[in-house]
Write a structure and sequence with these properties.
EC 6.3.3.3, 202 residues, two-stranded parallel ribbon, 9 strands, Rossmann fold, alpha/beta, globular, dethiobiotin synthase activity, 7 helices, ATP-binding
Length: 202
């Protein structure tokens, strides 16, 4: 299975979640579009087991900005047809760039990559004032595109009422809750991977 990890905003925690998913599922990793450095692929590599294979990006852009803007600065145009999932016998975790409706070009958004390369979407929602609205709007965008969503992963200081109402209105299961950590390393990722496995097929 190929899983597309998207978030409700740029700093939702997609890279950490991708590392946890790779560790839990013994999956490989691919970031189709990297805008700016350091590369998220390098972060995932540092946080996961050596067995996790990291595939090269389809587009590596120099500026930390929306992909369409970063591509313009680099003098390239991102084409949806260029996104082809790497060939692997393992599950594949595919990390998006920014939120769902971040533009790739004048026509396509990041979420338009998902149906080309993935079987299901995993939504990462960081918890902040306004995150209920942003999460439910993102869910609507996914539903409008009829994309299957495996579930939601909450990231940040626990807010039970926000989490409850998001799950209630979205109808999606919670796959994992990630709380603030003083240190993020391989041991942290392994600990959350074990929790994720408990909920994965619940």
């Amino acid at each position: 299975m190929n899983y597309f990890v998207t978030g409700i905003d740029t700093d939702s925690g997609k890279t950490l979640v991708s590392a946890i998913l790779c560790e839990a599922l013994k999956a490989d990793y691919w970031k189709p579009v990297q805008a700016g450095f350091p590369r998220d692929a390098d972060t995932v590599k540092s946080l996961t087991s050596e067995s996790v294979k990291i595939f090269p990006e389809a587009y590596t852009l120099n500026t930390p900005a929306s992909p369409h803007a970063a591509a313009a600065i680099d003098g390239v145009t991102i084409e949806l047809a260029k996104f082809v999932a790497p060939d692997t016998q393992n599950d594949l975790v595919i990390e998006g760039a920014g939120g769902c409706l971040v533009p790739l070009n004048d026509t396509n958004f990041v979420i338009d990559i998902a149906p080309e390369v993935a079987d299901a979407v995993i939504l990462v929602a960081d918890l902040y004032l306004g995150s209920i609205n942003h999460t439910l709007l993102t869910v609507e965008a996914l539903q409008k595109r009829e994309l299957p969503v495996k579930g939601i992963i909450f990231n940040g200081k626990s807010n039970p009422e926000s989490e409850r109402i998001i799950l209630h209105h979205s109808g999606l299961p919670c796959l994992l809750r990630i709380t603030p950590e003083e240190t993020i390393n391989h041991e942290t990722v392994k600990r959350y991977a074990e929790r994720l496995k408990e909920n994965w097929n619940a």
